[in-house]
Specification:
The complex is a heterodimer of chains A (135) and B (387). By secondary structure, chain A is an alpha+beta fold. Chain A has helices spanning 7-23, 25-34, 77-84, 90-96, 105-115, 117-128, and strands at residues 37-43, 47-52, 59-62, 71-76, 99-102. Chain A has a single domain (7-126), classed as 2-Layer Sandwich (Nonspecific Lipid-transfer Protein, Chain A), CATH 3.30.1050.10. With 387 residues, chain B is α/β, with parallel strands linked by helices. Classes of the chains: A alpha+beta (135), B alpha/beta (387).
């Protein structure tokens, strides 16, 4: 059974952690420096979220966006959930096909140190939404 | 070492080893049900007559040679791959044979993607984007270092963007790797030393990687033993087939190990040295390896003590940390005995470029599996120490 009951709940949780990063000074500086437009395409439930580091301030769109992504990350919503809980090795997930990444992998990797604060924040976000049982 | 909760281990490709084993290529190509091969190589190897050995090996088999693509530069490029794929398609190729070092192997991997799947190479930049088997592909390494004949990755430079692009998929692995030490005897001592230290770096970083596991460990430690016992001889007596063969096997084993366990800080620091200042990859690894081991010592003294033992250090009665330090000293001795430089200042890296190198290292995927976190500040201190 999928972690999220529907796309709306997925947007609410995953969107919130990305919004946290958008507002975090270190993470937002890293996104801006990268200039990447990253589209996360989720399945089960289906949805997509785009974070656009080419704009100032950084734009976050839950649902289809009209920007052309520089990076497309494709995964199940469960995989995304595991990732933000800090329980997923990104490289192993890419090698095992749990995720695909279309675009410049080194540029994506460069963002990883900047997004680590979100691993602590995500469980807090879930708890605040009454979804602590998903942790 | 505690077993990881979940790991996988790629065992492709099949490997054929032996002096003169390239003569078996006709029989092997026939088993892949192919009829028309294109050989991918570089001009130096072509002119040295190595491609002729492949053609001779195919003689009498059902496989004809559709052409030789020898336009591969030392660092391959997107346009070269695309041109090569067009050449192979025009030749009616249903089998690619890569004969060369890492650049040739990576070019052939990229060509195979385009030949099998169509489109432009940039369509496949990334990981996991190829989802089905490609055309048959045989790899014949002529250096003992990169292990590219057994890895899932290809690195190709895009001149237009000024960047090295990564392509990752298990489907890019060859179907067969032929390890023929006779093809490596003409490798000059300097290149033998640098590529050998590259293989040693693959093996040692595999052992201490956070992605290490028992299967990769077995191959990595086996590779370290072979390198410690044979690299000096391969450098000083290039026609020693036993030493050459051992080094080919070691590079291959280390390649399988790191393709599964991944690498660490030494590679993350070596890549920018090559990208910014053209330092050959093996030489950058050789210089930085002892510093990377020292940095990681607090996190994995036990693993580094194991490395020391397989390097041939008598570690009996030693504490892990003491043994690890003795192992690091053994690595330094090996590089020095092989005549390799020990400092970044000796290989054209300017001191005022170190900060930029440290920044570049932060974007390297290999940093993720290093046993200790290393930010820009820590990496800069290591570059300074190695300068």
């Amino acid at each position: 059974m999928p972690v999220f009951k529907d796309s709306e709940q997925m947007y609410d949780c995953i969107g919130a952690v990305l919004d946290f990063l958008r507002q975090d000074p270190k993470a937002s500086a890293a996104f801006r420096k990268s200039g990447l437009v990253i589209r996360f395409k989720y399945s089960d439930p289906d949805g997509e979220i785009t974070i656009d580091g080419s704009q100032d301030p950084i734009a976050l769109t839950c649902g289809p966006a009209d920007r052309k992504p520089t990076v497309d990350m494709t995964m199940s919503a469960d995989t995304a959930h595991q990732f933000w809980l800090g329980k997923l090795n990104l490289v192993a997930a890419l090698n095992r096909g749990a995720m695909t990444a279309k675009g410049p992998i080194p540029a994506i990797m460069k963002l990883l140190p900047a997004i680590t604060p979100a691993y602590k924040q995500y469980p807090e976000i879930l708890r605040a939404k009454g979804l602590g049982h998903l942790i | 070492m505690a077993l990881p909760q979940l790991f996988e281990f790629y065992v492709r490709p099949r490997i054929l080893y032996g002096p003169g084993s390239v003569r078996e290529i006709g029989f092997e190509a026939g088993k892949l049900a192919c009829t028309r091969a294109v050989i991918v190589t570089d001009k130096v190897l072509h002119e040295a007559g190595l491609a002729e050995k492949v053609i001779d090996g195919l003689a009498g088999s059902e496989v004809t040679v559709g052409g030789i693509f020898d336009d591969v530069p030392p660092n391959s490029e997107v346009q070269v791959v695309e041109r090569g794929a067009e050449f192979a398609a025009g030749a009616g190729c249903d089998l690619l044979i890569a004969l060369g070092g890492g650049s040739v192997m990576d070019t052939a991997k990229g060509m195979n993607v385009l030949l099998s799947e169509g489109g432009g190479l940039l369509d496949y930049e990334g990981a996991g984007l190829i989802t089905r088997p490609l055309r048959p592909f045989i790899a014949i390494p002529t250096t003992a270092g990169t292990g590219s004949e057994v890895t899932i990755a290809a690195v190709i430079r895009d001149e237009a963007q000024g960047l090295k692009l990564e392509f990752n998929s298990p489907f890019m692995m060859p179907d067969l790797a032929i390890l023929d030490p006779e093809l490596t005897v003409s490798l000059p001592p300097g290149l033998t030393a640098a590529t050998g230290m590259d293989a040693l770096t693959h093996a040692i970083e595999s052992v201490i990687s956070t992605g290490s596991q028992p299967l990769s460990d077995a191959l990595a430690t086996g590779a370290i033993k072979l390198i410690a016992a044979n690299l000096r001889q391969a450098v000083t007596q290039g026609d020693d087939l036993e030493a050459r063969g051992s080094m080919l096997l070691a590079a291959n084993m280390a390649g399988i190990a790191f393709s599964n366990a991944l690498l660490g800080i030494v590679h993350a620091m070596a890549h920018p040295c090559g990208g910014r200042y053209g330092v050959p990859h093996g030489i950058a690894n050789s210089i930085l390896l002892p510093y990377g081991m020292e940095y990681n010592l607090p996190a994995c003294a036990d693993r580094l003590a194991e490395v020391a033992a397989v390097l041939g250090v008598d570690t009996r009665g030693m504490e892990d940390e003491t043994a690890a330090l003795a192992g690091i000293a053994a690595v330094r001795r090996l590089a020095a005995d092989c005549g390799l430089p020990a400092r970044l200042s000796e290989v054209g890296v300017p001191r005022d470029g170190l900060a930029q190198l440290a920044a570049d290292s932060q974007g390297d995927a290999m940093m993720m599996t290093n046993p200790l976190y290393a930010g820009e500040e820590e990496v800069l201190a290591l570059y300074e120490a190695a300068y």
